[in-house]
Amino acid sequence: MSAWERGPGRLRVLVNEGERAPGEEEFPEDETYPVHRFPEITEFLHERWARGGAPHAWVETAEGPEGEAGYCHQRVAALRRRGRGSCVVAPLVIEGRAWGELYVARPVGAAVFGPAEAGLATVLAAVVAAGLTQSERLEEARRLAFTDPLTGLANRRLVDQRLDEALERHRAEGTVLSLVVCDLNGLKRVNDTEGHAVGDHLLERFGCVLSRGAARLGTGTLAARLGGDEFCLLALGPGADEVVAVAGEICAAAYALGVGEGVACGVASTGDPIGPVASARRLFRLADAAQYEAKGLGARHPVVAGRDDPVVRLADAVRTDDAGVVGAGQPGDGTRPAPPTERRRIRGRRRGGAGGTPPASG
């Protein structure tokens, strides 16, 4: 059985079952064939399906079709090279697209495959494809469970999981842990005036900006959409200054999108003196509070939480909600941030240069 890897353009053999030819392995590590050599999989089958035909198996023989002189198709050449007399090839089709193939060969001297065997192979391929479809759907479901469907970034569930793991490593090894919380300004205005399709496109474009930022910080960094217009960047390993610099680049790139009103960005890092970070909840509070201040200031640069600055007091100035409502960026702690009027009065430590704009809505 082989799978079509569309990106690199090759058929990869997954398993060789039964009597194998010399050099064949049951589970080969790297047995691949350029897919352009097999146009029957990549080209004419699709044309046939477009005309209403159904996928079906076919037979090749080492002598070529009906003994045609000089015929040396890639499959025929392979049969001759491996001492096989005939083969039946059945495409594996998932949701109308060629996924790969089943390939069965018989040695020279054995009965040549005929229409009956081809029909059986067609049925068998359909059964295998049905199983693969379920497997593909399960894999897609697992992927979607941790992925934001609009931006392709990680979602809140994966952030919470990774943050807990990162905190354990931070406590055990002292690895620097940083959290950048970003709130996309002006999304509501874009949705109201230009439509939700434009708003969704803005979210997608900013998701790309954040993804590039994660790439800049390297392995151990996760870009995520928390929900609505709120995003975050979780970095384990890079120093605080490096994270703040990348956050500044994210702010600049967000303003350069030309849609919306930029982004409010807050940073909390154990590489800065922010005090004890005993829980993911507190790290989120600190980054969230810094982001609230950036929004209130209309800052075009990130605001960074420090041990003694007002951002920490804002992070601590939360009250229990009788209904147990969770504030943005505070997973499951039954609290919510300070009122907007208090946020606007806060002034904290900032890095990344001067400059600002009038407070943005969003």
Key terms:
alpha+beta; 20% strand; 2 domains; five-stranded mixed β-sheet; 362 residues; Alpha-Beta Plaits; Beta-Lactamase; 40% helix
Describe this structure in words.
With 362 residues, this protein is α+β, with helices and mostly antiparallel strands. Helices cover 40% and strands 20% of the residues. It has ten helices and 13 strands. It has helices at 39-50, 74-81, 115-145, 156-173, 187-194, 196-217, 240-255, 280-297, 310-316, 340-345; strands at 2-5, 10-13, 32-34, 58-61, 84-94, 97-107, 177-184, 221-227, 230-236, 263-269, 303-304, 319-320, 335-336. The strands form three sheets. Strands 3-2-1-6-5-4 form a six-stranded antiparallel sheet, with helices on both faces. The protein has a five-stranded mixed sheet with strand order 8-9-7-10-11, with helices on both faces. It is elongated. It starts with a strand and ends in a 17-residue tail after the last helix. The model is unreliable at 318-362 (pLDDT under 50).
